[in-house]
Amino acid sequence: MNDIHGQELTRDDVLTMMQAYKTTSLLRTGVQLGVFEGLAAGPEGAEALAARLGTDPRGMRILLNALVAVRLLDLDGNAFRLVSGAAQCLVPGRPGYLGDMVHVMAGDWEWEALRRLSEAVRHGGVVVPENAETPGYRYWEDFAEYATAVAAPTAVTMADALDPWARGRSRLDVLDVACGHGYYGFTFAQRHPAAEVYSLDWPNVLEVTARHAERMGVRARMHALPGDMFEVPLGGPYDLAMVTNVLHHFSEEKATELLRRTAKALRPGGRLAIVGFVTGGESPAQDPLPHLFSVLMLAWTSNGEVHSAEAYQRILTAGGFTAIQTHAPKGLPLRVLLAERSATGEPEEESAAGTGRAAAEVPAPR
């Protein structure tokens, strides 16, 4: 049998994997201390940079040498400088800036969960006390604040895909479920002045969402729906619902339950837009990122994992949706799935019973 990777695993490969967390730690520390931004203007010595950034000189010297060792910096005599390409990726304000993603992809929340991965494998699910299913989980504040580097291009892909349907419509009431940063709804609203966005998430997250709405010029058209996506009255009916970066937190059955609930809040013929990882029929070696993300879901949720294209077909069909399309943001592993609510029947009214919120408290679309 041929090795699908095309090469033999070596001892050096294994040793590199064992130390990969050190590279991540160095990158994260460089971003947190402002090293890359500090060197944006040109080369500088360790003592001068330490004085400017307010760190210990010896600590800075050791850090900078280690950043050279992992090829994030270069060394010219006693002066350190950014490697080619680092300014675009690691200096705030540059168009390709990714540095803030360390707060999400290399934040303490994920590190703690993955540190206990062996326990999660033994138990078949989450073992950390605070996790993706914890109400008001503070990680989602960091996600909302810092995940915009990946969200922004994905939101453009979604808006592009929805444009032919949305263009020229006199009303566009949008429900954004698990909105987080809000970029998907707000990017759509920037293009379509008729769009009113109803942003659903935990109250602590919606504070961050509102700041993004203000910065993007759509705050007057954002309406907050604080609470649990499975319990809070959704209001409606809406023309468009967005369910982004959340279905992988649940089993196929639970994801179907959420989409059925969402469908009831949509007008017949309304649209659904989903963002998330999707696995295909190829080997995990050919498309590794969705499978690596499933590992985090194992450590962080009770039954979550990345769903396959076939599973999404089942989830959407059972949830009451048809005409499924898939769109791929350029250069990103995420997928945007669009679907249409069945045009037959009327959406059921959302009941407020047992939720602790009166129906009158839910902002109603115009």
TrEMBL record:
It comes from the Bacteria. The active site is at residue 248. Residues 17-74 form the O-methyltransferase dimerisation domain. Signal peptide: none annotated. Pfam families: Dimerisation, Methyltransf_2. GO terms for biological process: methylation. Keywords: Methyltransferase, S-adenosyl-L-methionine, Transferase. GO terms for molecular function: O-methyltransferase activity; protein dimerization activity. PROSITE patterns: SAM_OMT_II. Residues 340-366 are annotated as: Disordered. Residues 148-321 form the O-methyltransferase C-terminal domain. PANTHER family: O-METHYLTRANSFERASE CICE, PUTATIVE (AFU_ORTHOLOGUE AFUA_4G14580)-RELATED. This is Methyltransferase.
